[in-house]
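Dear colleagues,

As part of the handover before I leave the project, I'm documenting each prediction I ran so the next person doesn't have to rerun anything. This entry is a single chain, and its sequence is reproduced below.
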Amino acid sequence: MMILTAGYGLDPSGCIISDVSINKIDSKYQHCIEEAVERLKSVFQEQLHSVYVYGSVARGEAVEVQSDLDLIAMFYGKQDSMKLAELKQLSGDLSEPYRYLVRDVGIAAAFYDYTMDPSNYYENAFLRELCVCVYGEDIGRHFGPYKLTSEIAISFNGDIGQSLARTLTRVETASVEELQSITQGFARKLIRTYYSMVMARSQIWTTRLLEQCEVFLQHFPDKEPIIRTLLSWIDEPPASREAVVELFKNEGEWARVNFEREASKVN
């Protein structure tokens, strides 16, 4: 296995090389993406500015049935609660006929004025580095390039405390099927948060989960048993609600307490 070293995923000036591309999106997802865009245009009409794909589909790493199709709908103005409910319903309506291909079709809402504001660093960097425009004007081209800084790390995964609290609340009342999905999602979130803690000091950029694990363990080798458990849970979530709560509480709290200090370290 290749050992990742400083400079991986970066250009000669130290800026992030995005690993998403329209050319990496497998053609088998094209019909689903096109239908999603057409449905969004029909429901939101002139309110819709653009549509983006992110996640494993945008990286060309999606696994049939197991991976989600993650979309962002960019709107000119903020949508009221009724319109946001329509967006959620649209996600569900699109998911059902494509279960043979994706686990779910998720559509997140974003807003043009907010995203274009340079002070909203997270939205700027996320769109530039992690998203592929599939409809409308690609506003990601207005941002960056970005060096691998603690600000990037904190912007991307500094919300671990809030995410932990939401997850534990959902776990309490989740059905067996919901528990599996929640467990897989937060396991991924923890791994990405761990990686963000060492991102700036390592000067290694990757969005691949296994590579993120490798980079984190270079700095925290004692966490290997936890990483192995999280990876196994992504593949096959446990049936024990108590086991999920215990690990997430302990590791989520460790990440929350240590995140900003560790993420701010540079070598």
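The radius of gyration is 19 Å. Residues 176-202 form the longest helix (27 residues).

All the best with the project,
I.
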